[in-house]
Amino acid sequence: MRIVINDFIRADGIPAKEFVKIETPDYVEVLPFDRTTGEVVLICQFHWGVGAPLIKLPAGKVKSGQSPLQAARSELREEAGVEGEIFPLKTVYDIPMWYSATAHHFMAFVDANEYAAQRLDEDEEIAVIVAPIGEVYKAIMERDPLTSDTALNLAVLFAIQSGFIDPKFLTPQEVTPTQE
Amino acid sequence: MSAELENKPKTSLSLAEQFKLARDRVSWTLQGEQALYNRP
């Protein structure tokens, strides 16, 4: 990561000074969805930017020599403990005023009950949450602060719009125990 | 309980209930802060 301060000359010739730019690696975010149970596999991680834990998607940087798809597969396994077929949703700039990075959003079809132990980096502390997509979608549409992470909102809405999620799952269901 | 079992998702709980449990497990406490750049 590199933090730089840029000076510019505007289009009208007026100097514009001291714009902070944060250069970070491109990164991936993955929405893991179980097409059989209608569940999503989310994570909860502390976010030092806002000083609080948030519900979010498995995510991470694209390491040197990796493709975004390879990074998505790795993060899905390492952070959420699941594996599956992965499809691109959309590539976006996240907070492009400050950050130079590109964010690649993916969808993954997983078996939410085939949970394996996470493979976390030393500086990671992450809890896994499995919930019906209908419950998450309802929380997003009702502006529940629980679902305040931008990528989570975008990925769920992209996935629905792209037809990756059967609409029958979008009505909140009774929470029923699955394989523990 | 092993870390693996402890972190296995409790799918019988609601999203909000799982978040409460998860939040308690992954909250960090600020120990120091250093400003790299202070814009006047």
From TrEMBL, chain A:
Gene3D superfamilies: Nucleoside Triphosphate Pyrophosphohydrolase. Residues 23-171 form the Nudix hydrolase domain. GO terms for biological process: nucleoside phosphate metabolic process; ribose phosphate metabolic process. CDD domains: NUDIX_ADPRase_Nudt5_UGPPase_Nudt14. SUPFAM superfamilies: Nudix. InterPro entries: NUDIX_hydrolase-like_dom_sf, NUDIX_hydrolase_dom. The keyword Hydrolase applies. This is Nudix hydrolase domain-containing protein.
